[in-house]
């Protein structure tokens, strides 16, 4: 049995455009973000998708809805859960990234953004995000793959990097430099053996 897991970062959001820390702020897609979602739909149109997962944030939900509508998949199950939310940036959320670098120092902001286990004030590190996302993957998403279903997950840069770290067995120093473009599908093919390996990890 071969199944597919497709990971997709949402389209450009308003805060992406304005270069602000977004985190759990529930901002919408820009017009560009909607077009990016339509572009992703064209890439996914010919592949079978049986079930979709997304976060509790509307930029991911809206991206998924555009894809489902464009691909004629309005009837597949959609599971929304905050476990797939973006990493929380705590007190930095909503702040302009350049202004934040002036306020706290560029080196400190770089550490908050790019270290694995250092959290910004009141927020989550990537390690914290990993410890939220991966148990949810094992509890809710992996069982669907084990049933032979092809799964689409539309979420966020850091929640998806957490999943990629788990799936690819990456070290912290490898995942912190991994970039995920908006609305570019990352696809994994699993056979029974690979699924069992994920199950026992």
From TrEMBL:
Gene3D superfamilies, alphabetized: Phosphoglycerate mutase-like
UniProt keyword Repeat, yes or no: no
Binding site for substrate: 9-16, 22-23, 59, 86-89, 97, 113-114, 157-158
Keywords: Gluconeogenesis, Glycolysis, Isomerase
Alphabetized PROSITE patterns for the sequence: PG_MUTASE (PS00175)
Isomerase found in the keyword field: yes
Protein origin, superkingdom: Bacteria
A single MF term (Gene Ontology): phosphoglycerate mutase activity
Pathway: Carbohydrate degradation; glycolysis; pyruvate from D-glyceraldehyde 3-phosphate: step 3/5
Annotated catalysed reactions: (2R)-2-phosphoglycerate = (2R)-3-phosphoglycerate
One Gene Ontology biological process: glycolytic process
Purpose: Catalyzes the interconversion of 2-phosphoglycerate and 3-phosphoglycerate.
Similarity comment: Belongs to the phosphoglycerate mutase family. BPG-dependent PGAM subfamily.
NCBIfam families: pgm_1 (TIGR01258)
Name the record gives this protein: 2,3-bisphosphoglycerate-dependent phosphoglycerate mutase
Annotated organism of origin: Parafilimonas terrae
